[in-house]
Amino acid sequence: MPSSTHHVTPNPKGGWSVHRHGSQRASRHFATKTAAEAYGRQVSFNQQTVLIIHHKNGSRTSSDHATTDRPKARRRRSPPRR
């Protein structure tokens, strides 16, 4: 697995942690998985890494690619011609 990934994993002491692949310490710790995912997506987008989300048992749930999660620019519509 490349080092350009972040992981949302369950913490053995309770809650959820966000950490970069290969690091021993978590970037941040959260009480809920939803909060950890939101923070992980933000960090992953800013650093253009892949976010891997894990189940409570540690197996992988899914992965998000930062480049595909970028919000698309809204296209401006010109007023109708008369």
Account of the 3D structure:
This protein has about 80 residues and is an alpha+beta fold. The chain contains one helix and five strands. Strands 3-2-1-4-5 form a five-stranded mixed sheet, with helices on one face. A hairpin with a 5-residue loop joins strand 1 and strand 2. The longest helix has 15 residues. It is elongated, with a radius of gyration of 17 Å. The chain starts with a strand and ends in a 17-residue tail after the last strand.
| Biggest β-sheet description | 5 strands, mixed
Biggest sheet, spatial arrangement of strands:
3-2-1-4-5
Strand percentage lies at: 25-35%
The whole-number mean of residue pLDDT values reads 80
Helix proportion range: 10-25%
Tally of helical runs? 1
**Based on CA inertia axes, which overall geometry fits?**
elongated
What is the number of beta strands? 5
Q: Strand pairing plus helix content: what structural class?
A: alpha+beta
The gyration radius over C-alpha positions equals 17 Å
| Ends apart, CA distance between termini | 58 Å
N-to-C series of helices and strands: EEEHEE
Which parts are unreliable, with pLDDT below 50 for 5 consecutive residues or more?
67-73
